[in-house]
Write a structure and sequence with these properties.
By secondary structure, the chain is an alpha+beta fold. It is built from 3 helices and 6 strands, in the order ααββαββββ. A 6-stranded mixed sheet has the order 2-1-6-5-4-3. The radius of gyration is 14 Å and the shape is globular. A hairpin with a 2-residue loop joins strand 1 and strand 2. The protein starts with a helix and ends with a strand.
């Protein structure tokens, strides 16, 4: 697979972790030292990968509920063994714009940092 294809697969695993409420997929998508940071209505949220994986696993599965999944790669820029992807996705009734920084370590692309912004309700721009 090309770097672009591998990054796309990592982004899909990332989305699937939320859509399926899978802690295992969260750990597969993220580097062990990653941080997940952004603003929610109650203020700044900051999580480690383990905290994020535990949170995701504690939420109802959109897939099991029959909700439509939505993920769109807005942009992707690769520079050697680093990359940045902007991803728009629906999760827990909200539409997010995520900036994902990725690293290629041992020929595997994983998310090293997630910075998120809530754009509005799910299904809207």
């Amino acid at each position: 697979m090309t770097d672009r294809e591998q990054i796309q697969a990592t982004i899909q695993t990332y989305f699937d972790c939320m859509y399926e409420s899978s802690a295992d997929k969260a750990h597969a998508a993220f580097h062990e030292n990653a941080k997940i940071t952004g603003y929610l209505p109650h203020g700044l949220a900051q999580m480690s990968v383990t905290e994020f994986a535990d949170f995701v696993a504690s939420q109802p599965s959109g897939k099991e509920a029959g909700e439509p999944g939505y993920v769109e790669v807005v942009s992707r820029d690769i520079a050697g063994k680093t990359a940045i992807a902007r991803v728009r996705d629906d999760y827990l009734g909200n539409r997010f714009l995520d900036t994902l920084s990725l690293l290629n370590e041992n020929d595997e692309w994983r998310i090293y940092n997630k910075l998120f912004h809530v754009e509005g309700k799910a299904g809207t721009g």
